[in-house]
């Protein structure tokens, strides 16, 4: 079963979207993040994906009060990340009411530590965010809010984390993120071949209900919905209905 998951990206306490991860190409939406989370819940969402964009780049929890308010106020399970660099950060987000902690930069830079946290807290409490760009024939893994290049690739880390017992994998094609050009279905087919045990959350480029349907038919576990919802291309309720209809045909 595929689950559409609305996303809220936070910068300076505001709801924003970036274009291809570029902090200089930001759209700010005039909506309160807590009110937005409640709206998604009223439309039927059961999970919410929250990213602290300031924290992702700085390594500090710069939007933690807003995140805590969202977790406390909306009838949603929250998965959240941005700024987690150590185990203390994992505990801080769990203590803030987050159901799953999303690990990006640290999952790339220190996989042995993250594997230990998966063992300690359980695979259900951790989401690996291996966001990627295709460069020089490899799926590269930039870190620090996609601003720093790393040597490890998606091909390096998928087998490692599969062996470590990780379950939840969020993978964004950064070149599609915020572009409304459609998701990279080939990327998710590649992941399914290389590491079939993961529950994969597809992210980046979703622009229409047809995209939600296509990803559902492909068998991903989740579809992250950002700009398309904020711009009113479709509603959360419509996305859930489209996914449920596609699931029924699988």
Give, in spatial order, the strands making up the sheet with the most strands: 1-4-5-6-7-10-11-12
Would you give the CATH topology? TIM Barrel
Biggest sheet details: 8 strands, parallel, barrel
- Number of separate structural domains: 1
Describe the structure.
It is a single chain. The chain is an alpha/beta fold and 250 residues long. It has a single domain, classed as Aldolase class I (TIM Barrel, Alpha-Beta Barrel). The chain is built from 11 helices and 12 strands. The strands form 2 sheets. Strands 1-4-5-6-7-10-11-12 form an 8-stranded parallel β-barrel, surrounded by 7 helices. Helix 1 runs parallel beside helix 3 and helix 9 runs parallel beside helix 11.
Short characterization:
The protein has helices spanning 33-42, 53-58, 64-73, 87-95, 105-109, 111-121, 154-163, 185-194, 209-218, 227-230, 236-249, and strands spanning 3-11, 14-19, 22-29, 47-52, 77-81, 100-103, 126-129, 133-135, 138-140, 168-172, 199-203, 222-225. It is 40% helix and 25% strand. Keywords: Amino-acid biosynthesis, Cytoplasm, Histidine biosynthesis, Isomerase.
């Amino acid at each position: 079963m595929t689950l559409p998951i609305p996303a809220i990206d936070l910068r300076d306490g505001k709801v924003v979207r970036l274009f291809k991860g570029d902090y200089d190409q930001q759209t700010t939406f005039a909506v309160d993040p807590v009110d937005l989370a409640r709206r998604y819940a009223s439309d039927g969402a059961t999970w919410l994906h929250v990213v602290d964009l300031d924290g992702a780049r700085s390594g500090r929890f710069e939007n933690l009060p807003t995140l805590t308010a969202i977790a406390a106020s909306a009838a949603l399970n929250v998965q959240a990340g941005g700024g987690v660099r150590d185990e203390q950060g994992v505990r801080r987000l769990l203590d803030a009411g987050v159901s799953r902690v999303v690990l990006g930069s640290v999952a790339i830079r220190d996989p042995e530590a993250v594997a230990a946290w998966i063992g300690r807290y359980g695979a259900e409490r951790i989401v690996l965010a291996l966001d990627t760009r295709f460069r020089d024939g490899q799926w590269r893994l930039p870190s620090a809010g996609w601003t720093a290049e790393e040597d490890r690739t998606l091909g390096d880390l998928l087998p490692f984390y599969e062996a470590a017992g990780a379950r939840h994998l969020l993978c964004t094609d950064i070149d599609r993120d915020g572009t409304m050009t459609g998701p990279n279905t080939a990327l998710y087919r590649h992941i399914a071949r290389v590491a079939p045990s993961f529950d994969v959350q597809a992210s980046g480029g979703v622009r229409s209900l047809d995209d939600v349907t296509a990803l559902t038919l492909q068998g991903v576990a989740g579809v992250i919905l950002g700009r398309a919802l904020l711009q009113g291309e479709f509603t959360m309720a419509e996305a859930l209905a489209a996914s449920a209809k596609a699931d029924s045909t699988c």
